[in-house]
Amino acid sequence: MEPYVIVGNGVAAVSAVEAIRARGDRTPIVILTDQECAFYSRPSLYYIMLGRIQWEDAWGRPDWWYEANDVDLRCSTAVTKIDPDRHTVQIENKTDIGYSKLLLAVGTQGRVLPWADQHLRGIVTLNTLLDVVGISELLSTASRAVVAGGGLTSIELVESCRHWGVETTFVMRGDRFLDKQLDHDEAEMIHSRLRAGGTDVRTNEEIAEVQGRVGRVRCATLREAGEEIFCEMAGCTVGVVPNSDLVKQAGGETDRGIVTDDQMLTTLPDIYAAGDVVQVRGSDGKPTRSEMLWYVAGDMGRVAGGNMAGGDERYRRRVFLNVSEFCGLDFCGVGSIVPGQPEVEETIIRDEERGSIRFVTLDGVLIGACFLGDIRLADIARGLIAKGARPRDLHSDHPLRLLLERGSP
Ligand SMILES: Cc1cc2nc3c(=O)[nH]c(=O)nc-3n(C[C@H](O)[C@H](O)[C@H](O)COP(=O)(O)OP(=O)(O)OC[C@H]3O[C@@H](n4cnc5c(N)ncnc54)[C@H](O)[C@@H]3O)c2cc1C
Predict the structure, then answer these.
(1) DSSP string spanning 360-398?
(2) In a 3-state reduction of DSSP, which class is residue 114?
(3) 329 shares its domain with 299
(4) Which of 37, 146, 197, 365 is most buried, most CB within 10 Å of its CB?
(5) Do 96 and 157 lie in a common domain?
(6) Terminal-residue alpha carbon distance, the chain
(7) CA of 110 to the centre of ligand 1 (A)
(8) Residue 114 lies in a domain
(9) Does the pLDDT at position 88 exceed 80?
(10) Is 64 exposed, middle or buried (0-12, 13-18, 19+ CB in 10 A)?
(11) Range of the domain at 39
């Protein structure tokens, strides 16, 4: 019998394996991954760069896991083509591997901007363990860096530079950090903490060009200010591109990512997809936006694996939850917190020192909550959002009601 083939070795892939085996399906599984090593946690990469954990602590499963689950793991093996009619995938050396069912859990890659010759040593993205090895090596000798981008990966790289004592210019196109989640005042709390820690924060700005000398980054030019910043590292953390080409070339439906139904089935027979690479079709028939979060990729992998093993499972989006930590503040965004949404009401509880909490309601119903500093109520808020609760109907000693009445974080 042909095996199940899984392309990719991230959280979506291992969750699929566990779901297949949990249903008692013993079909052999082959994992093909261009990754050079076993499964690790990408959210841990930040803590490796900060020196808070060792890279060994980032392994997502123990060594025996692959054998115990009868998985033939083939690392450093990139899949270059899929043939849905013949039920085969092709790897780099042109060998064909047959499958009975195929799962594409191929994730994304960091978007690289055309600043300069990408082979210059010192132009970096932050996506993989290998990236972290390269960045740590650079930061151990560099004195100055620029980081472009305004998202969580960007600030992780900026904070890592600070940890290594590297002077850093943080360049973002928009008017503030994390502009889809933080309002102006919340973002300003972060900007002022970054500046206090010595980071040069530039908003409404971008890098126009990076110049090199003898194969190494030498300076970056800012478009608006026209200023040249001498640096040894230029970090490009401006978003990711889903690895959807395998499906596109095979004639399956793609949008930005691979389009699937809610059972994680692509438009190609016996081919499933899961994780960051996927856009699940919504009830209106249109592909929804990818959330690109760890727990989401795991949820999708479990549904895909369960269905490969004969189940009838459907992916249900949970209330959005994004946790991070930067500038000495914990952050958690829950539900719908995009600033400036029409018709919503916001209740803001803020203290410059201790942080900020913003509750978003629509017609009195809680739809979002943004925590900076104290995130202890984030999970409770998530439960209330899922239930469609109204803060004003909560009983008088509910912690969220007490917080709203107290009016300070
Ligand atoms: C630095 C960083 C920090 C993050 N922090 C957080 C966080 O705090 N919280 C959170 O929720 N999420 C976080 N994320 C996002 C989270 O890591 C992703 O949502 C999750 O890893 C996606 O898992 P995946 O299995 O879909 O894909 P990935 O983990 O990207 O795995 C994709 C796999 O596919 C393989 N592959 C790709 N193309 C091919 C090919 N052609 N042939 C063979 N193999 C291929 C790759 O080698 C890899 O093994 C972070 C991501 C990064 C990079």
Answers:
(1) EEETTEEEEEEEEE--TTHHHHHHHHHHT--GGGS-TT-
(2) coil
(3) no
(4) 146
(5) no
(6) 60
(7) 10
(8) no
(9) yes
(10) exposed
(11) 4-109+240-308
Give residue 107 CA to ligand 1 midpoint distance, Å.
Answer: 5
276 Cβ below 6 A of ligand 1: yes
- 307 within 8 A of 271, measured Cβ to Cβ: no
Partners of 363 in beta bridges: none
Instruction: Indicate the top mutation candidate among 45, 294, 324 to test ligand 1's pocket, ranked by most ligand atoms within 8 A of CB.
Output: 294
Q: Tell me, what's the pLDDT at 93? A: 85
Expressed in angstroms and rounded, the spacing between residue 197 Cα and the centre of ligand 1 is 30
Of ligand 1's listed atoms, the one at least distance from the Cα of 8 is 34
Best of 18, 35, 40, 42 for a ligand 1 pocket test (most atoms within 8 Å of beta carbon):
42
pLDDT per residue as tens digits for the range 200-231: 999 999 999 999 999 999 999 999 999 999 99
Cβ atoms of 35 and 77 closer than 8 Å: no
Looking at the DSSP bridge assignments, the partners of residue 303 are: none
Write the CB contacts of 387 (distance below 8 Å, at least 6 apart in sequence). none
DSSP, collapsed to helix, strand or coil, labels residue 224 as coil
Give the helix/strand (H/E) hosting 189: helix 184-196
Percent of the chain with pLDDT strictly greater than 90? 91
CATH code of 226's domain: 3.50.50.60
Q: Give Cα separations from 242 to 246, 252, 290 (angstroms).
A: 11, 15, 10
Q: Which atom of ligand 1 is nearest to the CA of 109?
A: 30
Pairing verdict, β 321-326 and 329-335: antiparallel
Count up the domains in the chain and report the number. Answer: 3
Encoded amino acid at 160, one letter: S
280 pocket-lining for ligand 1 (C-beta < 6 Å): no
Q: What is the mean pLDDT of residues 36-41?
A: 94
Residue 20, ligand 1, Cβ within 6 A:
no
Domain match, 11 and 152 both? no
Which one, of 322, 143, 160, 142, lies nearest residue 237 by Cα?
160
Length of the chain: 409
